[in-house]
Amino acid sequence: MKALVIGATGSTGEFLVDKLLEDQDYKNVVIFVRRPTGKQNPKLTEHVIDFSKIDSYKDLIVGDVLFSCLGTTLKAAGSQENQLKIDFDIPAAFARIAKQNSVSCFVLLSSYNASAQSKVFYTQLKGKLEDKIAELLFEQYIIFKPGLLLRAGSDRLGEKIMVKVLNAFNSIGLFRKFKPLPTDLLAEKLAQAPKIAPNGTSIIELEEVFYFGKSV
């Protein structure tokens, strides 16, 4: 398979690229980035692009599966408008072009509680993206909806606090479905997904991510 990845430099995307490069079922891995990553591998092709001109690169968005791990925080984006561009506009544009170019599978890293009807900006944004991609009718559409992610070296104070709180509750048997998910494990599940999920739409909910693919 030939894999395409956006969000390849994020905390999950970086691990995903490594997993794909290690996996013999993926013969080529193509990443789209804002600046060079410095990664070197015979299977890897890196395209440094201007994400405001995605249609200019449509001839490069060709393969078997497109992984979207793209996302940011409101603090990093600076405004809801900028977050909308990064979390919605860019992956939606890649999805549209990928469908036009006969990419058969789309794997989306979304969020727990994502819904277009949500009153919370972030989860509403993610839900609208899920729906937008669903309209394209990919042969295989896989949505991962994890909860709190355990990121190595995270500098997000709120995230660190929540991880400690959840780990404390988990240790006494509470809120186990909200157990923090290491991003390297999530990346492993993402890489497996196109090989084991059925055709059509598959939604991997928060409590299912840890066990997804374990029987394979």
In words, what does this structure look like?
The chain is an alpha/beta fold. It has one domain (2-149, 182-211): Rossmann fold, CATH 3.40.50.720. Helices cover 36% and strands 18% of the residues. It is built from 6 helices and 9 strands; from the N terminus they run E-H-E-E-E-H-H-E-H-E-E-H-E-H-E. The strands form 2 sheets. It has a 7-stranded parallel β-sheet, with helices on both faces. Strands 7-8 form a two-stranded parallel sheet. Strand 5 (105-109), helix 4 (121-134) and strand 6 (140-144) form a beta-alpha-beta unit. Helix 1 packs across helix 6 (183-196) and helix 3 packs parallel to helix 4. The longest helix is centred in the middle third of the chain and has 21 residues, at 80-100. It starts with a strand and ends in a 12-residue tail after the last strand.
- Terminus-to-terminus distance: 18 Å
How big is the Rg?
Answer: 17 Å
Number of domains: 1
> What is the β-strand count?
9
What general outline do the C-alpha atoms trace? globular
Structural class: alpha/beta
As for the CATH topology, it is Rossmann fold
Order of helices and strands: EHEEEHHEHEEHEHE
Beta-strand percentage range = 15-25%
Under the CATH scheme, the architecture is 3-Layer(aba) Sandwich
| Superfamily (CATH H level) name | NAD(P)-binding Rossmann-like Domain
The main sheet orders its strands as 3-2-1-4-5-6-9
Identify the CATH class.
Alpha Beta
Mean pLDDT across every amino acid position: 87
Helix content: 25-40%
Regions with little confidence, pLDDT below 50 for 5+ residues = 154-159, 165-175
The profile of the biggest β sheet is: 7 strands, parallel
Q: Please give the count of helices.
A: 6
